[in-house]
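Q: Convert this sequence to structure tokens.
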Amino acid sequence: SMKKIKPSFVIAILVVIFAGCRQDNKMYEKLEKIDSLIEHKDYSAAYAQLTDIDKANVTEGKVSAYYNLLMTHALYSLRQPIANDSLINISIAYYEKAKNKEKLAQSLYYKGMLNDNLDNVELAITNLKKAEDIAVSQKYSDLLYKIYLNFSYINAKAGNNEKALDYASKSLSVSEQMGDMTKKANSLEKLITAFSRIERDDSVNIYT
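A:
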């Protein structure tokens, strides 16, 4: 016959589980504060706080996914080298399962930019396109602006000036809807660069 489980044993297990949940919640709140620093472009402070976190406390799925997204975002924004996309892949896998569209789109965007930094342009475009699909359907204007601006940059780098112009005008359109002058100026700069390259190519063709 089965031994009766002592109530004290059940209570002890529940205490351990509850303590673990509280620890995860406290860690998640800490990450939300770091996210706020990133939103205010205080990347150095965010990175310093992320590196201060004991990795032993970053085990639970939700916490791990958020930590890896923030770390990738901070490192990318500080132009620090990131050797591969293993960190952000953890975030993508979790947010796909959790159906967290906003954080999934952000993770795909940073994976795409990381791919581009590692000269894997094809993979960069694939991931940025996935991020774009979510950003368009969910109307994530800020992310959409960044995606279009970087599509313009990637195409300009590859000499696809017509596409670079097209994406620069898309990022300009989004920044106008947002009423953001800085974003508008960045988009106009890309637009003018792409347009002048097309003009230059046309004039070269006339004289050759």
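The chain has a mean pLDDT of 89.
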